[in-house]
Amino acid sequence: MRSERRVHIISAGGAELGSGHLVRMRELQRRLDEQHVRVEIIAPDNVSHNAFDTDLFILDARDIDPRPFARRAPVLALDNRHAERPGLETYTAARFKKNTSGSDEFQYSIQNIQAQASSYPECKFPIVFVDTIPHPQADLADTLRNALLFELDSAETNLQQRRTDRLSLFVYAGDWKNKAVHSFFTRLIDENVHYDWHICGRFVDTWQAGPQVRLSTHLERPAFVQALRSADLIWTYFGITMLEAWYLRKPVVLFAPGDSEHAVLGDYLQQAARIPFISIGTDIDTALAKALRQLQSQSRSLPAQIPDGRGFQRLLDQIHLLLKPHNA
Questions:
Q1: Which CATH architecture has domain 6-149+309-327?
Q2: Distances from the Cα of 42 to the Cαs of 29, 118, 236, 286, in angstroms?
Q3: In the chain, where does DSSP find H-type helix?
Q4: Pairing state of beta strands 233-236 and 277-279?
Q5: Fold match, 6-149+309-327 / 168-296
Q6: Which of 31, 188, 304, 325 has a Cα-to-Cα distance from 287 of 20 to 30 A?
Q7: Are the beta carbons of 178 and 200 closer than 8 angstroms?
Q8: 3-class secondary-structure state, position 125
Q9: Distance (Å, rounded) from C-alpha 133 to C-alpha 274?
Q10: Helix-strand-coil split of the chain, %, nearest 5
Q11: How far apart are CA 191 and CA 214, in angstroms?
């Protein structure tokens, strides 16, 4: 019998399910490798063609049904949104309960993990859910606590001295590249030339901008952290950049790149955490002025709850619990 513990992370490429999850899973793989756990990232389609000798599957439950995998090994299912997926209305998430002491840690109980298997008759092994990003159907405090953030405090950056005393805005648009996004930010900047702008995203590769605008299609991690730290205000869509800015206690404005899901999530955080949200296509003059007044106001209050930066460590603790010999 082998003594080495093996983990398979099920993750499709960015073109299928989005790049954010894959990037986070590669970081999780790196950290598990450092702890001498053998990890392989595989595409969902490959699972049905191979008999995997594994101790644990990890997957994104927003896009992948975890039940078939639980016939082979325990499953750690991240970011469960079952109410939005047809055919899974009765498939409810099993979660750990908080300690009675009131601490922010969870009670890790082997008995609880084993008991979960009986909740899903078609599954031989348990499925454990962990929500790592905010969602209207999840507890906000829990998702912020579990947020998978990269190193921010220890990242080496060389903050450049301000060129001017004008407000500095950093826009991160990621891989979004469509006419609506391009038009939105073109109008936004044209009507607000009195700010210093740094725009990062794929859509800027063919964009001509004035001297007050710095354009980047991609930033390496140190430069990205520097951009976050040096900005007075960060404008992005719902995602990890939003959480990182939140962790750094930077004012954030959210935009929806054009799909309904991001609009719903942006509106949710506007209500739950007082983060201004502006839909593409809205009246920029009115909406931006209102958001900037709120963010620049001396009386503004940042969200009371912020990520604490320990989400990866909590997830590693969860993984090692599931890798204990009782699951072999």
A1: 3-Layer(aba) Sandwich (3.40)
A2: 12, 27, 30, 47
A3: 14-17, 19-34, 44-47, 110-116, 140-146, 179-190, 221-230, 240-247, 260-273, 284-296, 311-322
A4: unpaired
A5: yes
A6: 304
A7: no
A8: coil
A9: 17
A10: 40, 15, 45
A11: 16
Single-letter amino acid, residue 88: L
Radius of gyration over every alpha carbon of the chain, rounded to an integer in angstroms: 21
Looking at the DSSP bridge assignments, the partners of residue 198 are 170, 214
Phi, psi of 68 (to 5 degrees): -60, -35
* Residue type (1 letter), 14: G
User: What CA–CA distance (Å, rounded) separates 34 from 56?
Assistant: 17
Phi, psi for 266 (deg, rounded to 5) = -65, -45
pLDDT in tens, the chain (328 residues): 556 889 999 886 554 445 677 888 999 999 999 999 999 998 877 766 556 789 999 998 877 778 788 888 899 988 865 434 333 333 333 332 233 333 333 333 333 334 444 455 567 888 888 888 888 878 888 889 999 998 876 544 444 545 557 888 899 988 777 777 777 788 878 878 888 899 998 877 777 767 778 988 888 888 999 999 999 889 898 888 999 998 988 888 888 876 667 788 888 888 888 887 877 766 666 666 666 766 665 445 556 678 888 999 999 999 999 998 644 4
Cβ 75 vs Cβ 64: under 8 Å? no
* DSSP symbols for 261-285: HHHHHHHHHHHHH---EEETTS-HH
Per-residue 3-state assignment (H helix, E strand, C coil) for 284-315: HHHHHHHHHHHHHCCCCCCCCCCCCCCHHHHH
Q: Quick check: helix, strand or coil at residue 256?
A: strand
What CATH number has the domain spanning 168-296? Answer: 3.40.50.2000
Domain spans, the chain: 6-149+309-327, 168-296
